[in-house]
Amino acid sequence: MNKFQGTGVALVTPFNTDGSVDYDGLKNLINHLVEGGIDYLVSLGTTGETATMTKDEKKKVWAYTAEINNNRLPLVAGIGGNNTLAVADDIKSFDTTGYSAILSVSPYYNKPTQEGIYQHYKHLAEISPLDLILYNVPGRTMSNMSPETTCRLAHDFKNIIATKEASGSFDQFNQIMRDKPADFLLISGDDPITLPMISLGASGVISVIANAVPKPFTDMVNLCLQGEFKAASPSHLSLVEFTRLAFAEGNPAGIKAALKHLSICGDTVRLPLIKASSSLEQLIIAELDKIIQTA
């Protein structure tokens, strides 16, 4: 499981001004992240605006991401939903070439019971050709996967190898760390609490802001993983304001504004999301420039 230690990045999906996928921008982004020293890539998670993409677009983006990555870093594909059988079909038809695992969000909107969540992931684990990473993000799904359910799945299925936890609950993190199998990974799903989560034993993070600032963020994570929390603290604190601004008007509008400033890709998003306001964009740029100057 060492391939999922450290800094993973949930890739944005760059779009052209006409709304089509910007493959040149995606290539720029992947190379930017590889050169920035991150540890693995996550293609088409929430940050990739997957909810607004067609099946054909997803297949093309996954294939192109694998091609450009060229086995330089481990790759994870985001495949989830609230229709278990449809998600299973998507997983079974997924071209696994170049990919090491699947990140699958806990079912949203339906508000299933804990047993329903368990049975959902049980079905996926039994058919998946790749290892699975659970993803608990109650702020989006309106349904929390309990520590008991997470650890039950971790103990029952060897191919469920990790959870991306974005509940924000340290009580929940503590319970998972206490009760999980030794080789099961707890991964931070929130950039600003990565340092304290690693102090509890988390293996790292799947980050949004590292799209724009891969090296300073990864350097901070690596110090934490080495137990050098005092040394990591200044870097952690220097990223607090940028992180706050990046999410101020929703994800990924803020981080795309930063990537536009870096000339990596444009800031186009698909409705119902809209671009960051001009006032927020200027604040993001100012904070990003400050980080770059001090890196």
TrEMBL record:
It is found in: Cytoplasm. Its EC number is 4.3.3.7. The active site is at Y135, K164. It comes from the Bacteria. Pathway: Amino-acid biosynthesis; L-lysine biosynthesis via DAP pathway; (S)-tetrahydrodipicolinate from L-aspartate: step 3/4. Keywords: Amino-acid biosynthesis, Cytoplasm, Diaminopimelate biosynthesis, Lyase, Lysine biosynthesis, Schiff base. Pfam families: DHDPS. InterPro entries: Aldolase_TIM, DapA, DapA-like. One of its GO terms (molecular function) is 4-hydroxy-tetrahydrodipicolinate synthase activity. GO terms for biological process: diaminopimelate biosynthetic process; lysine biosynthetic process via diaminopimelate. It catalyses: L-aspartate 4-semialdehyde + pyruvate = (2S,4S)-4-hydroxy-2,3,4,5-tetrahydrodipicolinate + H2O + H(+). The record marks T46, Y109 as: Part of a proton relay during catalysis. Catalyzes the condensation of (S)-aspartate-beta-semialdehyde [(S)-ASA] and pyruvate to 4-hydroxy-tetrahydrodipicolinate (HTPA). Belongs to the DapA family. This is 4-hydroxy-tetrahydrodipicolinate synthase. It comes from Pedobacter terrae.
